[in-house]
Specification:
By secondary structure, the protein is an all-alpha fold. Helix content is about 75%, strand content about 0%.
Length: about 100
């Protein structure tokens, strides 16, 4: 029996693809079109792209609707909130430092 099935490899590859496309390619395209990749607009486009790539196939396949435990939804929303706020803090550290 193989350690990793083809489906597992496909899931990992599509996850890496979603992350690389959303967080590397989209900001580069926006930067070349004249937008600041650190702007609120660009970050909103990046996160919208990422969530669309991840959630639309999950909704179409029916997986999203099969999750009925509210705690799992809370974990998902908490994790997404932490990730979005962490990225915003990482890209805008001057907004969070004290000035004396």
């Amino acid at each position: 029996m193989a350690w990793v099935s083809m489906v597992d490899l496909l899931v990992v590859a599509s996850t890496f693809g979603a992350i690389l496309f959303s967080f590397v390619v989209v900001p580069e395209i926006l930067g070349r079109r004249g937008h600041d990749p650190r702007s609120t607009f660009a970050r909103a486009v990046v996160w919208t792209t990422f969530l669309a790539i991840v959630l639309i196939p999950a909704a179409v396949s029916g997986f999203l609707f099969s999750v009925t435990n509210p705690v799992e939804w809370l974990i998902l929303f908490f994790g997404l909130s932490v990730a979005i706020l962490w990225e915003y803090y990482r890209l805008n550290p001057r907004k969070f430092t004290r000035t004396q």
